[in-house]
Design a protein that fits this description.
The complex is a heterodimer of chains A (968) and B (313). With 968 residues, chain A is mostly helical. Chain A is built from 42 helices and 14 strands. Chain B folds into two domains: 139 residues, Glutaredoxin; 87 residues, no CATH class. Chain B is elongated and about 100 Å long. A five-stranded mixed β-sheet of chain B has the order 1-3-2-4-5. Classes of the chains: A mainly alpha (968), B alpha/beta (313). At the A-B interface, helix 20, helix 21, helix 22, helix 23 and helix 28 of A face strand 5, helix 10, helix 11, helix 12 and helix 13 of B. Chain B: It is a multi-pass membrane protein.
């Protein structure tokens, strides 16, 4: 046999195999290590070149240590609670500082997987006497899991093709930017562990399907449970696996392996997933999960039909059976539609529905559409995140079609579905990335196999000779005999390059092959080309990661004119100002993007944060920001807001500021108050969004506009002030603030010295950071003389008081605190109020009430301290406690009073998602349902196993019977 | 002249005879549910003391004005107004639909400072029990962000009418019939298309085309409704997070070509019997890969100016 290049002939096949597996392990270890190391180092890379400078070094350490965790400070706080106080305390953790004044039951409204994982790691390390700070665990969790992801991808791809493809796929996922964005050190986010779980669940599923193994099916279910506990994207698995099973069914590939794998996965996985409190009954009541249930039912029917068919001989009966199966399927579908229509099954939740009807979100749920991660993806993002994998990926899918085993169908379905999803939402690029790596690895490894293979085929003119010489062996198609023989003889995978290599070294005079590459130069050209593409990919990934993804969102970097790096650290400056200069219980209002950052870094209660569970509350903030000061002031006061924080990039050209997000605030507010806020009012008559002289009146009067541009033109010393983000000139006459600001009336002494400058009334500029990115305003308290603040301010400025209508002060949704300390619920929109009634609400009584009436450990007592300390006005005014509950409860229903043991049902009623069943019944019924399902599936599985063995039995019986009848 | 005088007299007399609301409802029923406004009737309809609400379409339908959006929107407006004409008679008088053409009453356009069309204003009542609770009686503008279709318009206007507008989408018979014919046809020809449906390569082609179109950013163009190209031969949208419709085609084609070259190298080339021909093909497809990939990277550099790498181009 001719080879393109010399290969050693004195190596035994065993040596080759051992060396190969050793190399594989080393390579995988290197990839995992590289994944961790690159993610760590790349985080530093943005500031890396200047590490020598001491200041920068401290900045880097600070960033790595605390602030880049800022993406999800809440969760690192949650983890802290978990690690410090244990699991149950975390489960019941009520965070009074978030969603002021509602507070938030964190344990019940998050996917706890991430926190529990890091808590376990922390406890494990402490059990080993490794005193690691929980913060370090949080920071390093994502890179650690990215190594596991590489391993899971390797295992998955190995099932698709072979080990070499697996290694390539692992290498790809280790560095591909689409995944690295979520796995850099410090990105403490659900997605960090979710992709590993996704890939490993899929691997277990494929393995279960291939072997028909209930063990792997159960493993898949367990990891599915972990995934459910970790990420809302679990619905992707919930629908991918049934889709795969359905496709196999439709292709006529039903087998007992499929039955066992799916049934074990579905039964155990669904039961397990229902144990997560945030999910609870959704798997049986929402449309996202109905596909899985439907396929489960369909499989039972098909299995039953298969069984009956083997026992019935009549053709007509078989037809009848098919008819019955089809009818049951159709009936089931109708029942599903009917139940959805009647409201028994909840329709798709908004986030998922917006995936199908892409216009839906913008129209009805602006809060989802406003998130930048939920925008559709333009092609440069695909190329940026996947680079050359984006075009090797379709080639890999075509190669999957060539073999089309069951697992290849999975990859095909996955790639189609995920590429659609990734196109609809930037965020879902994350689910596309693994399959791109897998398919690309299959394509590239096939290419490399073909062109590294040293064996030369027989050229056309030689074929005839070869055929005549070798006779029968080459008469059959070339690949088949070789592979069959090799499998039986050496148990080496003959299709791969390694197998060929072994075969080549082993038997020199093997049958000549027709397929292959001639000559060394063709090989070298292709290999060189592929290698350079791979190298380019590595450069690309390094560049993308160091530039786009590793800069922490709280610290910005820019270039000085001399090329040195300039750190813009306004966010941290402002947050630390808040931390140092404001009372601990002062409430900060900002747009929800900054909620977690303020909570984590400034440690102050916030009105809204990055979690989107309460649309109305976010809309309230949007309304306050987008209405005039007179309208906004009562809202601010009712929510006890002390400081308002806005992000303004106009001075240095930071485009992610609040003015650019402003239209979303308007839209979200409009969704709740369509009469008061209207988006068109914020545009010029020509329909432009402007901030200069031509800006609409509503725009200029909005609180956001005023706070952003307040005293902005003073900075330019009489010259024309220019907003560098919008590239527009700011009006010469800047906005004035009446309701935010320095306390003119209540503290006349402080303002005496700078009386000349003071214009503002409603809020006052309390702090503006170095580059004006963060501006903080203080909300003034009511005027002591009872004037409205505008006239008070005008009086202070020596202006004549205009006779104008007093600012509309609508009553707060409050009620008196009465004696009987019962909780009453009252419906106002989606929000329920819990009223604590006390009759004599003098100051001392209020204090006593706080200490006595409310049980020590109840949620109310935890939320109570955040009410600001009672002032003289409180005695006259009415105070309230707002607590958000789910809207299905009856209005005016007295809750079981807050006795010491009564806080549990109360807590669980604070869930954000509507639950149809009263909470008290949930646990037992889940349990019963679980039991029922468990028994049912076990029963069915055993039955199936028995039935599998029946046909043999049955044959003998029936043949015996026929013999008898014949003899008769 | 005489006729004009008589008409004026008539209208004058009717003014005295009827209340403004009855007058308006007469006008509305005369115009098939839509009052065709001029300057005077506009003042009547939007009189400061009114216990009815009104929706007014400001438009310029005359061919000289060359307002194509006006023409696009007018049918939807008429459909919604006609649907309102079928509302119960007792509430029909409480809300009016009106159209004001620029050529009939340019003074109104000037007075309101309007310099674009079409515009829909909604005038809430200033009197009576339907007066808005907030006391804000200034007209509310319809936002065309949902396009010129009738359904969102009807949904928006229903917020201001005493009862929701009984608007029903006309049944799209053409679509219905096309789908029916398609289904029936494919059922009839099932025998002939079965080999196509059962062939894995037709599925493969469909899959790959879907994937290519998706990674080409098709959903972006669908959701954002971006134009096909920027006009005057400019087909690349500036900016990293933006693209035109034509870019989807170009990029998907480039990706497809590169995938195809790779597949040729993997699947077809090794089957070549003749060494010379095979060598030629290897060089051909490798060259195609290199050049097209360079084109792709340079295209990406256009979109992302800061991208530091480039290949041969």
């Amino acid at each position: 046999m001719s080879t393109a290049y010399p290969i050693p002939s004195d190596v035994s096949p065993a040596t080759v195999r051992n060396t190969a597996s050793l190399l594989r392990i080393v390579a995988l270890a290197l990839i995992s290590g590289a994944a961790i190391a690159s993610l760590l180092s790349m985080n530093c890379a943005c500031i890396g070149p200047l590490l020598v400078e001491k200041k920068i070094l401290t900045v880097t350490i600070a960033i790595l240590g605390s602030t880049s965790v800022g993406v999800n400070l809440l969760w690192s706080r949650a983890t802290r609670v978990l690690a410090a106080k244990g699991f149950y305390e975390f489960w019941n953790w009520f965070d009074p500082t978030a969603w002021y004044p509602l507070g938030r039951v964190v344990g019940g409204t998050v996917y706890p997987g991430l926190m529990v994982t890091s808590g376990i790691i922390y406890n494990f390390l402490h059990a080993l006497n490794l005193p690691v700070d929980i913060r370090n665990v949080c920071v390093l969790l994502a890179p650690g899991f990215s190594a596991l992801t590489a391993w899971a991808t390797y295992m998955f791809t190995k099932e698709m093709k072979d080990e070499s493809a697996g290694l390539l796929a692992a290498a790809f996922i280790g560095i591909v930017p689409g995944y690295i964005s979520r796995s850099v050190a410090g990105s403490y986010d659900n997605e960090a562990i979710a992709i590993f779980l996704l890939m490993f669940t899929f691997y277990c599923w494929i393995k279960a399907l291939k072997q028909g193994s209930a063990l792997f099916g159960t493993l898949a279910a367990l990891f599915y449970f972990y995934m459910v506990a970790a990420w809302g994207g679990y619905a992707f698995i919930t629908n991918m696996i049934p889709l795969h099973a359905l496709a196999l069914l439709l292709m006529g590939r039903f087998s007992s392996r499929l039955y066992v794998a799916y049934t074990s996965w579905y039964a155990i996985g669904t039961l397990a997933s229902m144990q997560v409190p945030f999910v609870s009954f959704q798997p049986v009541s929402t449309s996202e999960h109905m596909g899985a249930l439907g396929v489960f039912g369909l499989l039972q029917i098909v299995a039953f039909a298969q069984l009956v068919r083997t026992h019935v001989s009549s053709q007509q009966f078989q037809k009848l059976l098919y008819g019955a199966v089809v009818a049951i399927g159709v009936l089931g579908a109708f029942a599903f539609v009917f139940l959805t229509y009647k409201g028994k099954i909840a329709p798709w939740t908004g986030r998922f529905y917006s995936l199908w009807d892409t216009g839906y979100a913008k129209k009805y749920i602006p809060i989802i559409a406003s998130v930048s991660e939920h925008q559709p993806t333009a092609w440069p993002s695909f190329f940026m995140d996947l680079q050359f994998l984006v075009f090797t990926f379709p080639a890999g899918v075509v190669l999957c079609f060539r073999e089309l085993r069951d697992e290849h169908i999975f990859v095909i379905l996955y790639s189609v579905v995920a590429s659609y999803f990734a196109g609809v939402m930037v965020r879902l690029m994350l689910t596309l990335t693994p399959v791109v790596c897998v398919a690309s690895a299959v394509a590239l490894s096939t290419l490399l196999d073909t062109y590294i293979d040293p064996v030369e085929p027989v050229a056309e003119e030689d074929v005839d000779d070869a055929v005549s010489a070798n006779g029968s062996s080459s008469a059959t198609p070339p690949s088949q005999p070789a592979s069959k023989k090799a499998k039986k003889a050496a148990a080496a995978p003959a299709k791969t390059a390694l197998g060929d290599f072994v075969a080549a070294t082993n038997s020199k005079g093997g049958p000549p092959r027709r397929k292959g590459i001639f000559g060394l130069d063709s090989r070298l050209v292709v290999l060189f080309n592929t290698l350079s593409m791979l190298v380019f990919f590595v450069f690309h990934c390094t560049w993308v990661t160091s530039n786009a993804y590793s800069s922490p969102s709280v610290v910005l970097a820019s270039q000085n004119p001399d090329g040195s790096q300039h750190i813009i650290d306004d966010f941290r400056e402002a947050y630390y100002w808040l931390r140092q200069n404001t009372p601990k219980d002062s409430v900060v209002m900002s747009w929800w993007d900054y909620g977690y950052q303020i909570a984590g870094m400034a440690d102050r209660p916030t009105l809204v944060d990055n979690n989107t569970w309460n649309n109305t509350h976010i809309a309230t903030v949007g309304k306050a920001m987008s209405s005039s000061e007179e309208v906004a002031y009562p809202i601010l006061r009712k929510h006890d807001v002390d400081y308002v924080l806005v992000i303004f990039g106009g001075l240095i050209g930071y485009s992610g500021d609040d003015i650019n997000k402003f239209l979303w605030m308007v839209r979200i507010a409009q969704g709740v108050w369509p009469d008061e806020i209207q988006e068109p009012n914020y545009f010029t008559p020509q329909g432009e969004y402007r901030i200069d002289d031509r800006a609409s009146k509503t725009m200029k009067e909005s609180l956001m506009y005023k706070m952003s541009y307040y005293r902005f033109n003073e900075l330019f010393g009489g010259q024309q002030a220019v907003d560098r983000v919008r590239q527009q000139q700011v009006p010469k006459e800047g906005p004035t603030l009446d309701y935010l600001g320095l306390l003119l009336s209540s503290s006349p002494g402080t303002c005496a010295h700078n009386e000349a400058e003071i214009l503002p009334i409603l809020t006052d500029e309390a702090f503006t950071s170095e580059n004006w990115i963060v501006r903080i305003y203080e909300v003034k308290k009511e005027d002591l003389l009872g004037r409205d603040l505008k006239s008070a301010n005008q009086f202070a400025q020596g202006k004549k008081r205009k006779r104008s209508k007093p600012a509309p002060r609508r009553r707060a949704i409050v009620c008196k605190i009465y004696e009987d300390s019962r909780l009453w619920m009252n419906k106002t929109g989606h929000c329920f109020l819990l009223f604590v009634r006390i009759k004599s609400s003098t100051l001392s009584d209020l204090r006593e009430f706080r200490s006595q009436e409310i049980p020590e450990r109840s949620a109310l007592s935890r939320s109570f301290p955040i009410l600001r300390t009672p002032t003289a006005q409180d005695a006259k005014e009415e105070r309230s406690i707002y607590i958000h509950t789910h809207p299905t409860s009856n209005a005016q229903r007295p809750l079981p009073s807050l006795s010491a043991k009564g806080h549990r049902p109360f807590l669980s009623s604070l869930r954000s998602e509507p639950i149809n069943l009263p909470q008290a019944q949930v646990r037992p019924s889940i349990f019963l349902f679980s039991l029922f399902k468990c028994y049912h599936s076990l029963f069915v599985m055993t039955l199936f196993e028995i039935i599998q063995n029946i046909p043999n039995l049955d044959c003998s019986i029936s043949s015996g019977g026929s013999q008898q009848s014949r003899t008769d | 002249m005489k006729a004009v005088f008589v008409a004026a007299l008539l209208s004058l007399s009717s003014c005295f005879a009827l209340s403004p609301q009855q007058q308006l409802s007469q006008l509305a029923s005369a115009g098939n549910g839509i009052i065709k406004l001029n300057a005077e009737t506009y003042d009547l309809l939007t009189s400061p003391k009114r216990n009815w609400s009104a929706s007014i379409q400001f438009t310029a339908l005359d061919a000289r004005r060359k307002c194509s959006p006006c023409k696009d929107f007018n049918p939807s407006w008429n459909a919604v107004a006609k649907a309102w004409a079928n509302a119960p008679a007792n509430v029909r008088q409480e809300h009016f639909f009106a159209t004001l053409d620029f050529d009939d009453a340019s003074s109104v356009f000037q007075k309101l400072g309007l310099n674009s069309a079409p515009i829909v204003f909604n005038y809430p009542p200033t009197d009576g029990d339907r007066k808005p609770a907030s006391g804000n009686t200034s007209p509310i503008k319809y936002d065309f962000s949902d396009g010129f279709e009738a359904r969102p318009l009807a949904e928006f206007l229903s917020k201001f009418t005493p009862v929701p507008i009984p608007y029903k989408d006309p049944i799209d018979w053409a679509k219905f019939v096309t789908i029916a014919i398609g289904v029936l046809g494919s059922l009839l020809f099932l025998r002939f298309i079965a080999p196509i449906v059962q062939n894995r390569w037709s599925w493969a082609a469909a899959t790959v085309v879907t994937i290519l179109v998706m990674v080409g950013g098709y959903m972006f163009t669908r959701i954002r409704g971006v134009p096909y190209n920027g006009g005057n031969g400019n087909w690349i949208a500036g900016g990293y997070q933006n693209q035109f419709g034509q870019e989807v085609q170009v990029v998907a084609f480039i990706y497809g070509l590169l995938s195809f070259a790779l597949l040729m190298l993997i699947l077809v080339v090794p089957h070549q019997k003749s060494p010379q021909r095979q060598r030629l093909q290897v060089y051909l497809w490798t060259g195609v890969t290199m050049i097209v990939y360079s084109v792709l990277v340079s295209l990406f550099r256009v979109k992302n100016r800061g991208y530091p790498f480039k290949l041969f181009l």
